[in-house]
Design brief:
- Helix content is 52%, strand content 5%.
- It is mainly alpha-helical.
- It has one domain: Glycosyltransferase, CATH 1.50.10.
- Strands 1-2 form a two-stranded antiparallel ribbon. It has a two-stranded antiparallel ribbon with strand order 3-4. A two-stranded antiparallel sheet has the order 5-6.
- Helix 1 packs antiparallel against helix 12 and helix 4 runs antiparallel to helix 5.
- The protein is globular and about 55 Å long.
- The N and C termini lie close together (5 Å).
- The model has no long low-confidence stretch (mean pLDDT 92).
């Protein structure tokens, strides 16, 4: 349990007074520089939902790993951290209900993944104002919708595109992770019938039925695996068994001899995907051991650059790591 508790403290240390979680991008000469990016704060918010009784993602069994004397403090700390993130996301919203990867009024246009993830986090806000915002956020997401029912990442000059190349030029196409997060938001918001969501569901099932697609906006295919598995789990989408049959072998094929799946975030995302898919084989235990081994002496986990351009956030790595340790140990037994 001490690793989970220390990890949550490490995330609090990385949270600014505004509620933002620190994120970084690489410097040309080495090292990392701070970047404002609401997207990483949304990822931390989502990962910590398993610890928050007010979240639809809460998993009560995770509290069994926390001593009774510390349980109340831990739950309050997780809930407080997540409420501050939602306050920050409200502040970063554009007037039209969208969000930008580099924050409010940045040079980069609004994008569908930041918008979908921030809007999904704000679904947890209570009250009438939150209900009114929900309709505005659904309308904002719809601006990214293409004629065939899939969602562009960015819109610029009247055209939609999926990501950008090394020279910063727009690349046509759709980004699967973006569409998975859009589907998750729309499903959680109750904004789509099964028929209306069918193009997204079919597209994502196709993306994970064979070799996972090459890098786009996200440089590790495990981000897609985690996003799709989480979307099906949280939204209760159909044929979860078929999805698991397609996706579990592809995730397990990426596991190395140490039990890891690459960097610390990629490993945590992979284990989280397996848990969301209902898989509890021996590989999960080995993956959990690899996640635990990635903990640093300050209680958190390291920056892992799975987003294009080397962007990442130690707070995101830490949040996913403590969440999968708690969820995995609650299911499989053992000490987190």
């Amino acid at each position: 349990m001490i690793g989970i508790d220390r990890g949550l403290d490490a995330i609090h240390t990385a949270q600014l007074g505004s509620g933002e979680l620190l994120a970084y991008a690489p410097e040309p000469t080495g090292g990392l520089r701070y970047v404002r990016s609401p997207l990483f704060s949304t990822f931390v918010h989502e990962a910590l939902g398993c610890f928050d009784p007010r979240s639809t993602a809460w998993e009560e069994r995770t509290l069994g790993l926390i001593g009774r004397d510390e349980r109340g403090r831990f739950v309050r700390a997780a809930g407080f951290l997540r409420r501050r993130i939602r306050g920050y996301l409200n502040w970063q919203s554009e007037i039209d209900g969208t969000w930008r990867f580099y924050g409010r009024a940045s040079g980069l246009p609004a994008d569908a993944v930041s918008t979908a993830c921030a809007a999904a986090a704000l679904l947890e806000c209570p009250g009438r104002a939150a209900m009114e915002r929900r309709a505005r956020h659904v309308a904002a997401i719809e601006r990214f919708r293409s004629g065939d029912g899939l969602y562009h990442t960015f819109l610029a000059g009247g055209r939609g595109y999926g990501w950008w190349d090394a020279a910063g030029r727009p690349v046509a196409g759709f980004e699967p992770v973006v569409n998975a997060e859009v589907l998750r938001f729309l499903a959680l918001a109750g904004a789509r019938s099964a028929a209306e969501a069918a193009p997204l569901v079919a597209y994502l099932r196709e993306q994970v039925a064979g070799d996972l697609p090459p890098a786009g906006l996200f440089t590790s295919p495990l981000v897609l695996a985690a996003s799709v598995a989480r979307t099906w789990s949280q939204a209760g989408l159909p044929d979860a068994e078929g999805l698991a049959a397609d996706l579990v072998p592809r995730v397990l094929a990426m596991q190395d001899a140490s039990g890891g799946f690459g960097g610390p975030l990629a490993t945590a995302l992979a284990v989280g995907a397996l848990l969301d898919l209902g898989y509890e084989g021996d590989e999960v235990g080995r993956g959990l051991a690899a996640v635990a081994a990635g903990r640093l002496n300050w209680g958190g986990w390291a920056h892992d650059d799975v987003v294009a351009g080397g962007h990442g956030s130690p707070a995101w790595t830490t949040a996913v790591s403590i969440a999968v340790l708690a969820r995995g140990r609650a299911r499989l037994g053992g000490d987190a």
